[in-house]
Structures are given as structure tokens and as C-alpha cells.
């Protein structure tokens, strides 16, 4: 393993991103953007992770727990049963309950799903396109399946001036 690969590995193990680690190790931006998977193979990062207990089965078990995450919350009462049998408003000091419930932790679940999709290759951090467009001005318009009159008239105008957008 050469010196740059050792630096790359050191920065990775410190918790930096692959891109950041590659730049800090002295690799070019193009290498940092496109070739970190090859660097990982060369330095054997998967073996280092396994030696430190981060095996595939361990990570899968942790990931399953993440997808079923719950959090415990208390809730506020605003009304209580009065002595006469009716309902009365509670003062702010009495509003906090000593009862707690478990609810799904949607933020943690969403992050877990995002990670799973990234690992499976269904979700990418970014999508880059490069190239040269010749022949005049080009416009890209993204329309969000809206049904408002304004959007429909915009779609009609675009269709009248372009054959690229089918009906």
C-alpha cells in the first residue's frame, strides 16, 4: 500500500467521507469523485471493517432495528373530568402527563430507508450530466403533474412551440 492509500485509509477511519478522504490524501478531484470504489478495494477497507466487528450480518441486524425505530413521548392534557362529572380545562402546570407512549420514529426510519436504497444502488446522492449543447438556446422545464389552469396553459404553450413534449 502506498503513502496516499495509507492516508486515504486513515481519513476514512476517522469518519470522513470517501471524497474528502481522497482529497486529503492527495488524489485529484476526478479520482475523488469517480474512483473511490477502486481505492477501497486496493486498501481493503472491507477487511478492516470486518476485523473490527462490522460484518455484513452485524450491519444487517442493526439496520433492521433502525427500520423499526420507535421513540417514547409524553403528551399534554388540556381537559380533565370535573368533580361534578363534566369536563374542565386544566391549568398549564397540570397539563404535563406522567403517561408515556411509544410512537414510530419516522425520521430514523426514513434515514434507514435512504441508506438501504443507497446501498442497493436505487438512490444516488447526485446525478451529474456533462456535455455541450449546440444549436441555440435550450430550456428545461419541470412540471409537477399539476392540474391548475396556469400549468395547463404553460403546457399548451410549450407543446405549440416544441415537438419534444408528447401529449
Structure notes:
This is Terminase. It comes from viral metagenome. The structure is a single chain. Helix 1 crosses helix 2 and helix 1 crosses helix 4 (36-43). With 167 residues, this protein is an alpha+beta fold. The model is unreliable at 162-167 (pLDDT under 50). The strands form 2 sheets. It has a two-stranded antiparallel ribbon. It has a two-stranded antiparallel sheet with strand order 2-3. It contains 8 helices and 4 strands. Strand 2 (79-81) and strand 3 form a beta hairpin. The protein has 2 domains: 3-53; 55-124, no CATH class.
Strand line-up of the largest beta sheet = 1-4
Q: Helix proportion of residues, in percent?
A: 40-55%
**Structural class from helices and strands?**
alpha+beta
Strand share of the residues?
Answer: 5-15%
The tally of strands reads: 4
- Overall pLDDT: 75
N-to-C SSE string, H for helix and E for strand: HHHHHHEEEEHH
Number of helices: 8
- Gyration radius from CA atoms, angstroms: 27 Å
End-to-end C-alpha gap = 57 Å
Principal-axes geometry comes out as: flat
The total tally of domains equals 2
- Main beta-sheet annotation: 2 strands, antiparallel
Question: What ranges have pLDDT less than 50 throughout 5 or more consecutive residues?
Answer: 162-167
Organism: viral metagenome
Protein name: Terminase
